[in-house]
Amino acid sequence: MTRMQRLALATVFVTWLLIVLGVTVRVTGSGMGCPDWPLCDGRVVPRADKHALIEVAHRYLATVVSLLVLAVVVTAWRGYRRNRAVVVPAIVAGVALLTQVALGAITVMTTNHPSSVTAHLAVSMILLASLLLVAVAAFTADPRHRVRIAPMTEGFALLAGATTLALFALMLTGSYVTGQGAGYACRDWPLCNGKSFLGGGDRLADIHALHRLAAAAAGILVAALVWQAFTRHRRNRPVLTAAASAGGLFVVQVLVGAGNVWLELDEWIRAAHLGVGALVWSALVVTTALAFIAVRRTGDDGLDRDINEASTRPHSVRESVSAYIGLTKPRIIELLLVTTVPAMVLADNGLPHPLLILGTLIGGTLTAGGANAINCYIDRDIDQLMTRTRHRSLPSHRVTPERALVFGIAIGVLGFLELAVLINVLSAVLAVSAILFYVFIYTMWLKRTTVQNIVIGGAAGAIPPMVGWAAVTGRVDLPSLVLFAIVFFWTPPHFWALALRYRSDYAAAKVPMLPVARGEEETRRQILLYSIVLVGVTLLLYPTGGAGIVYLVVAALLGAGLIRMAVQLFRSKDAFPVMKLFTYSITYLALLFGAMILDQAARSFV
């Protein structure tokens, strides 16, 4: 092995030990064993106390990790300056280390506040991942000691990335469970106090049950990843080994998690739980990195050259920024945010704190933008064929596919972190669920296979009101489900109107949108039916207690206008300008949710 390879592996191992020791500090209650920082009770050598010794050992090991990370950064810069795959994650590791040191001090000063503890763990996982990427790059780039990876398609790489993101969310929810003291709120396993879903009104039980639901979702993705590795990529030994390791370790992680409950949260079992979790995380990061390297080599072999090569034309900073913003589909994000703020107003029975609104909107923008950017990456082949989309950033070669994907994943993760740390974990998990549903259920599965693509896929765009509601209440209540249903049933008539206008585009791209698969007459009929159902659903917000009479009147009037246009479209057929309905549907949604705010304002004056 080269010096860089040995250094990277050693740094990864010691960083993992630091993470395990860090969780030991938490589970043994040693976080305040040294109430000051960086000394311990004003002393370099601590007193002979269990908690003080554990905390100081954690700090000293952190010093060793700091020196090793510094060595990685220097070595990467001196020996691999032209290799971005090595230099960039090395620099990220250095930044993550500095952030981690600052968060460690903040955690002590805030006496282990759950949010600061969760953020501390999040950055430690980013640090570990960055070092793993350095190691993978060092082993795959060096011609003398190169790991051989066979070319592969992007689907597996995307699945690996989503699984890694899901595990990241799982680990943060687990950290939040511990920080909130909810580790034993569910006294049985796999159920939670005899229930299969949330804990039945008990806040701590709900937090714990949410973590288990996240574990179930992550488990499904891990199982799918391992299955794909064994059935389709068996000859790619490095990828297969990493994926199989992740699967095996995840099973161990589940058993250790069950042991947390069965053994009533013995502190060493709890430390092992996160230690194994960090190993699962490491295996998934390596799997994802190797898979994307294999995808890049697929492009190098010329199998997908047309859509993997971007124009070499130089771009100004302004053009580059515009291209990346375009990946996020700002107009779609505007609609999503329009539904988020009114949901927060309803949940609060008034105007929430401006910082809470701002934080939720920032997180929602980042997660939605990340999902849209990943969607652009996956759909770049059909976007080239459609008149409506061929000028987007990827078909016009203003951004390379690889950078678009990295950008989408990065801002999606950043949005999750922002929501989890500054708002609450439930809102963050809901936002990530929207990303996963939009990317894997809608974009990769439904869109190209079934006429019901936009109907089922619309669930992803219906989650933002629930995110807003959860940001205020920390729960998912009946009115938030009605808000979800409103956006869910609004999506088909809205999008089918656009699909009627661009039917030839979807036909050329072989996307089975309703006008292509069932014809224009059936599409007009479905638009009318869904419009009627939508108006009925909007009125449900009144009896469920979410809104008052002002909203009811406005909803009825707006709904009458929508149904009238849908009837005209159905009867007049091609004589009715379909984009008129499409434009009205946007105005309809904005005014409908605006009426919720107006209704709350009116009720506050009564």
How much is the radius of gyration in Å?
26 Å
Count the beta strands: 0
Helix and strand pattern: HHHHHHHHHHHHHHHHHHHHHHH
Low-confidence stretches: 299-314
Q: What coarse outline follows from CA principal-axis ratios?
A: globular
Oligomer: single chain
Helix content: over 70%
Instruction: Count up the helices.
Output: 23
| Amount of beta strand | under 5%
Global structural class: mainly alpha
Q: Sheet bearing the most strands, described?
A: none
The N- to C-terminal Cα distance equals 76 Å
User: Mean of the pLDDT scores?
Assistant: 83
Description of the structure:
The termini are far apart. The protein is an all-alpha fold and 606 residues long. Helix 1 runs antiparallel to helix 8. It contains 23 helices and no strands. About 3% of the residues have low confidence. The protein is globular and about 85 Å long.
What is the topological layout?
Elements lengths: L2 H25 L22 H30 L4 H26 L4 H28 L12 H26 L23 H30 L4 H26 L4 H34 L4 H4 L8 H11 L2 H19 L5 H25 L1 H4 L17 H23 L1 H22 L6 H9 L2 H10 L4 H24 L1 H6 L5 H4 L2 H20 L9 H24 L5 H28 L1
Helix pairs in contact: 1-2, 1-4, 1-8, 2-3, 3-4, 4-5, 4-8, 4-14, 5-6, 5-8, 5-14, 5-15, 6-7, 7-8, 10-12, 11-12, 11-17, 11-23, 12-14, 12-15, 12-17, 14-15, 15-16, 15-17, 16-18, 17-18, 18-21, 18-23, 21-22, 22-23
